[in-house]
Each structure stands twice: as C-alpha cells, then as structure tokens.
Design a protein that fits this description.
Largest sheet: 5 strands, antiparallel
CATH class of the largest domain: Alpha Beta
CATH architecture of the largest domain: 4-Layer Sandwich
Oligomer: single chain
Strand order of the largest sheet: 5-14-13-10-11
Radius of gyration: 45 Å
Number of domains: 5
CATH topology of the largest domain: Phosphatase 2c, domain 1
Strand content: 5-15%
Shape: elongated
C-alpha cells in the first residue's frame, strides 16, 4: 500500500489564502464577494480548485446568514465543477477557456440577483439614483476586473517571487492585493492587530534587504489603516526611516528605534490618557512584533537573506562569463597541444642519421675514385676491407684530415694504393665539414624552434588552466560592499567581487564624480586589506566603471648610474626595469662584449629579448636558452654577461639569474649578501647552465647589480664589500652615484671600461 506524501508548503499556502478570503469578505459592509476574485485566481496560479472553492464556502459560514450561505454554496459549486472540467477538456485540445470565466460570471450573477444588499449613500448628487441593483452590478464588475488583477498577482508571487525580477505591473497588482487584504484585517480584527502585523513585516523586510527599500514597504503598509481609520501615512514613513537607520546596528537596535518612534507618536496623540484596555492593546501592537522579531532564529533570517541575494544576482551574465572562459580555456589548451606536437616533431628530427649517411657517402666516393681502378680491388673486397676503410673515414671526420699514421694496420698491410686512398678521403672530408656545418646549423635552428614551441605551449597551457577555472563569486561581500558604499554616499548600480579570496578583484559601476579615494577606503575597510583603484573606465558622461585590486605589500625605488668607456661613442652596458604584471617586475643588466657601438647592439638586443620574453611570461629556462642560441648564430664573436631578477611585490620573493656576470649584492641593514655566478656568458656555448637562486627580500632591502667596469675598479670583491658597508643604501640613486664616483676615482678619473650600477630598494606600500 502506497501513501502520498503531504506537501506541507501547499497546505500552508491554502491556509494563508483561506485567511485572505476571510479578510477580503470584510472589506465591504454588504458581504461583497471580493473573495471570488481570489477563488478564480488560485487555480490559475497552480493551486487546488477544490481547496479554493471549499475555503470560500467555509469563509461564508462564519457570518451564518441563510441566503448568503446558499449563494456561497452555489458559487463554490460552480468553481469546483468548472476548473476540473476545464483541465479535462484542455487535454483534448478543445477550446474551453471560457469555462472558468463562465463560472465567475454565474457566481457574480447570483450575487447580483439574490444577495441581500443595503445601498450605500453615494457622495455626488448625480449618483443618488444608483440603488441597490446598480451598485451590485458595479461591485460585480469590480470583482470581475479584480479577478484578473489577482491572477497576475498570485502567479507573480507563487511562480516568480525570489526566482526572477517582477515586472512593474506585477508589483503594483501584488501591492493592491495586500492592501485589500490589509483593509479586511483592519475591519475583521482591529487596526491595532493590523499595526502589529505591519510592524513585524516592516522589521523583517528591513532586516532581509538592509537598504532603503524598507521605506517603500512602509508606504505600502500605511495604506490599509489610512483607508480604514485615517491613520496618516507619514507615520509609516518615519517608521521606515527609523528601522532602516538602526538596522545597520543590529536587530535589537532596529526594534528599539521602532518602539522609540511609536512611543513618541503615542505621546503626541495623548495615547497614555486612554483607558487601560485601549492603552494595553496599542502598546502590545508594537511591543509584541518587536519582541517576536528579536527572537526570530538567525538561521531563518540568513536563509531568507541569501534567497533574496540570490534573486538579485545577475546569474546569466556570470554564467556567460564562465562559459566564455571555459571555451577560451579549452581552445587555448588545444592550441597548446599543437605547439607541443611541433616541439616533439622538431626534437625527433634531431638525430645523427645525417652524420652517418655522410660518412657512408665519403666511403663510397673513395671506393669509386681510388679503389676500383686498383688491380687489387677484387682481392680487397674478398677480404672485406670495407670496415677498415670506415675506420679511416671516421678518424678523418674527427680530425679534419688523415695521414699515413691514421691508416688501420690491416688496411695498410693489404692496400698498395694508400696515397690515392688518403688523397680521396681528405678531399671528401673538406666537403664533409661544410655539409656538417650546414647540418649543425639546421639542427640548431630546429632546436631553437623546438624550444620556442615548448615555451609557447607552456604559456598557452597555463593560460588555458587559468581561463578554465570558473570565477569565484562572493555575493555576500558584494552586498556588504554595496551597503557600505551607499552609507558613504557612493551609489553603485552594479557590484562584482571575484577571484581568489586572498586576492579579490572588485568591479563596480558608479555615477557622477565619485570620490575614488573614498571608494578605495571603504573597500579596504570591508576586506581588511589595502585596496587601490587599478582602472577607471568611462562608460558615459556620468557613469564609470571602477576596478579595485589589492595593493601589493611592497613598492620599489630604483637607482641607475652609468658611464661609457673613455673615447667610445656608445656604452656596451644596457639595463632594463619593466613591469611584468600588476604584482611583479623584472630588473636586468646586460654587459655586451667589449665597448662601443657593436657591444651596445649586442647588449640592447639581449635586453630587448629579455623584456619581450618575460612580458609574454615564457619560462625563464626557455628565455635564456633561446637568447643564447640566437647569439651563437652570429658569424662574429658575440656574447653578453647578464643579471636578471624577477621580484614579487606581494611577498618580496625574488628569483635571480646570473650568466657570466660579476658579483652582485643584497644590502639588508648592516649586512651584505654576495651574489656570485660561475657560468659562461651568453653566446659562447650552445648549451647554457645559468646560476639561479631565490631570495626573500624584506622591507628596506636593496638589490645591487654591477657591470665588470665597476667591479674591476675595486681590485677585489673584498675591497668592494668594504666600500659598500660604509655607503648609505636608503636612497638607491644615491648609492649608485657613490659607487660610480668611487670607481672613477680608482681609475684616476678616467673610465677604462663601460660602467653601470643598478639598485632596487623595496619598501612597504603606503595606503
């Protein structure tokens, strides 16, 4: 036996709407059937027609009047038959949309024809002729129109509320529904009872929204008592303002603020002079909802608040952003795989088959030119002297030429034409050297392209992984930031917080001449970290987009001093300081071979390549090996000594690479750390083994790179070390100037080499 699960939510909704029907029946003084509009709207909004019809009948039983009860029974029967029949015939595609309207028309007709009705005294003279029947017809027409209003309102409340934004007319119709129900509450219960309900709704609404919309809610809540008892709407406006202001300090403060305004109005109205029963009712109408609001479970309010925040979010734009990021990431990953295949292909082509084939070719040429014309050729072939000839060719390829001492013993004993064989071998070895040089250049080119393909593949793969990661959205932070900015007088139409929790990015739309310093200050206070305006984009004449990011922990100051060699037109030393991204920068010093224009070109080319590769975020190993390969391609002697440092401003982590360069230093207070490297300069050997290390720079630490023109002036590292200990390092420019001055004094005032000093000092960022 199966049991049907009870849907308590739907049961609760039916009970609430049954109470609404009860209150609607008391809006007028003649049992006007306003509740029929709700009976008509409930099934169209997805609720049970039987429950709606039965609730309407029960509501009319309360008054216990004979004829109205019979009319209500007939009206309930009309709806109980019409809607199920409508659903049944609708499945057969029959046009039966008129059945619910027909039931409503019959019900209103029964009201006009049979319901007792005391004609109202109308205010204008030309309306005095409207007796009971015309007035009932007008009421029926009003209920007919109200049924359409309630249908829209119920569909909006049950199907769209907290799921999407309501349209303007839907909001108006919902407010009209609640106003009419509120009027019924005031008449059926009392104005004090309604005031208690209104106070609780106002407090809960303000707690959930935490914005100025509570004032609008207060205005809507003021209409029923204004219509029934003439209570001034401005009172509710003051209630709304008080609750909105004090809600920022917590629920208790908001409830106390409401009570303070209530008792202040009570004093002005002479409330405390009322008789005890009336005084107690009035006070309880404010105290009970305030107490109930304070005792509400925090998880319940948080759940409602989260649902409202979720409803307010623009999910579609965020879904679109993440979908685009995922698509771009996937495409980048596929392109990365293409470059990885290119790298694999170039690497696979780098074999020694060409070298072995060239040796075999030389042996064949020697046999044709020197052996086949020899009378002993057949004898040598029978004794298989080919292996001995291969040995001779191999030795010749290694040495560059052959002589009699290189001839293998077995070949020397058998061959009667050794001079011709040696001549043929040496002749072909010259061609071999030229061929192998071309082959090696081609192999170097393939290796260079393979390295570049690998670097590009790694860059694209990292971008793919970064783009494929969905944006982490922090809706609670967005809402808190919006409220905080509004409290500071900055109006934002949109706020977006995304990225890593430790390093978020804030984007917001502001209007007019917003104070960017104020925006940054509010954001810094809310996120507990210094935030800065990294971009400010103009969207229109009075609308701007501000993008804020976390301020790095450190900032840097730089100092550079240089002098070219006496008598030269250009310096071979080149330096660079570039921003890789918002949180890292690179500093580099390149010393080209020698001095003058040629050294300058080498040095500038090296620095330009370093800047381009590091900006592209190519792996450091690939960067240095590629530059080394490019320099070795030159027919002339080209090499450069390089110092490179990449500094992270968030934590001071610094990666330093030294290639053939003289000593460098890290100056920290009274201590000096020496940076040494033992590798050869760039461009000398095909392979590269740079000296690299990582250091954690602290506040006021100074990184110092020097060219050999300065280090050579001091004679030894010890002398340079002693000089640095006595120099102030707070100002990096002053430090490099003093170093250059000391070096020139050591040279007798004449620069004997190109001299450059580059200093970088870290200090704490200033908010």
């Amino acid at each position: 036996m199966t049991y049907k699960t009870v849907n308590y939510t739907r049961v609760g909704l039916h009970i609430l709407f049954a109470l609404a029907m009860l209150f609607l029946q008391y809006v007028g003084d003649n049992c006007e059937p306003l509740a029929l509009a709700l009976v008509y709207a409930m099934p169209l909004a997805g609720l049970s027609p039987f429950a709606a019809a039965f609730s309407f009948f029960l509501v009319n039983l309360i008054r216990w009047q004979g004829i109205p009860i019979l009319i209500a029974a007939a009206q309930s029967l009309f709806f109980a038959i019409a809607f199920p029949l409508h659903e049944k015939l609708r499945r057969s595609h029959a046009r039966i949309g008129f059945l619910p309207l027909f039931a409503l028309s019959l019900s209103l007709g029964a009201f006009v024809a049979f319901s007792p009705f005391d004609a109202y005294t109308l205010p204008f003279s030309f309306l005095q002729g409207f007796g009971a029947i015309p007035q009932k017809i007008l009421v029926a027409a009003f209920v007919f129109l109200l049924s359409a209003v309630f249908t829209v309102a119920l569909k909006a409340m049950l199907k769209k509320f907290l799921k999407c934004r309501l349209k303007g007319e839907e909001i108006v119709f919902c407010v009209l529904f609640f106003v009419l129900v509120g009027v019924g509450v005031c008449k059926f219960l009392s104005v004090n009872a309604y005031m208690g309900i209104a106070f609780f709704i106002l407090l809960a609404f303000s707690c959930i929204t935490k914005d100025a919309s509570a004032i609008v809610c207060a205005f809507a809540l003021s209409l029923p008592p204004a219509l029934v008892a003439g209570v001034s709407p401005e009172r509710f406006f003051v209630y709304g303002v008080a609750v909105s202001l004090f809600m920022k300090s917590g629920r208790l403060a908001a409830a106390c603020g409401l009570l303070a305004v209530f008792f202040a109005y009570g004093y002005a109205d002479g409330l405390y002079a009322f008789e005890s029963s009336r005084l107690v009712q009035s006070i309880l109408s404010a105290v009970l909802p305030a107490l109930l609001f304070i005792l509400l479970p925090a998880p319940l309010l948080r759940e409602m608040e989260n649902r409202l925040v979720f409803y307010r979010e623009k999910h579609l734009s965020r879904v679109a952003i993440n979908r685009n990021r995922a698509a771009i990431g996937k495409q980048l990953y596929e392109i990365s795989a293409v470059f990885r295949e290119i790298e694999t292909t170039f690497s696979a082509l780098g074999t020694n088959e060409a070298e072995e084939g060239a040796k075999e070719y030389i042996r064949g040429c020697v046999v044709e030119e020197a052996c086949k014309t020899c009378p002993q050729y057949r004898v040598c072939m029978r004794k298989d002297l080919t292996l001995e000839l291969d040995k001779l060719v191999g030795v010749g390829c290694l040495k560059g030429k052959t002589s009699l001492i290189d001839v293998p013993k077995r070949l020397a004993d058998m061959c009667i034409n050794q001079s011709n064989v040696l001549y043929a071998v040496n002749r072909r070895i010259g061609e071999y050297k030229k061929y192998m040089l071309e082959t090696e250049n081609a192999a170097s080119g393939r290796a260079l392209l393979a390295g570049q393909a690998q670097g590009v593949s790694e860059i694209l793969r990292n971008l793919a992984l970064e783009q494929s990661e969905p944006l982490h959205i922090y809706t609670e932070k967005e809402r808190a930031l919006n409220v905080a900015l509004l409290g500071a007088g900055v109006v934002c139409s949109e706020v977006l917080v995304y990225g890593e929790e430790s390093n978020p990015t804030l984007s917001l739309i502001t209007f007019g001449k917003s104070d960017v310093k104020k925006i940054a200050a509010v954001a810094s206070h809310l996120f507990g970290a210094p935030m800065i305006i990294s971009e400010r984009l103009t969207l229109s004449n009075d609308k701007f987009c501000c993008i804020l990011r976390k301020r790095p922990s450190f900032d840097a100051a730089f100092g550079v001093s240089s002098a070219r060699k006496a008598g030269e037109s250009a310096s071979g030393d080149t330096h660079s300081v570039i921003k890789i991204d918002e949180r890292r920068f690179m500093v580099a010093l390149s010393d080209g071979m020698g001095s003058g224009e040629y050294a300058r070109r080498i040095s500038e080319s090296t620095i330009s390549l370093l800047e381009s590769f590091y900006r592209a975020k190519m792996p450091p190993d690939t960067v240095l090996s590629t530059i080394n390969k490019l320099l070795t391609f030159s027919k002339e002697e080209t090499f450069a000594c390089v110092d490179v440092a990449v500094v992270n401003l968030d934590d001071g982590r610094t990666d330093i690479v030294k290639i053939g360069s003289p000593v460098g230093f890290i100056l920290s207070g009274n201590t000096v750390k020496v940076l040494e490297g033992g590798s050869l300069p760039l461009g000398i050997l095909d392979s590269l083994r740079p000296d690299s290390a990582s250091y954690d720079l602290q506040e006021n630490d100074t990184l110092l790179f020097l060219s050999d023109g300065i280090t050579g002036a001091f004679g030894s590292t010890t002398d340079l070390y002693d000089a640095l200990k006595n120099m102030p390092c707070q100002n990096p420019q002053q430090l490099t100037d003093l170093l250059l001055e000391c070096a020139l004094q050591s040279y007798g005032g004449v620069a004997k080499d190109d001299m450059t000093a580059v200093a970088v000092r870290l200090f704490k960022s200033v908010a």
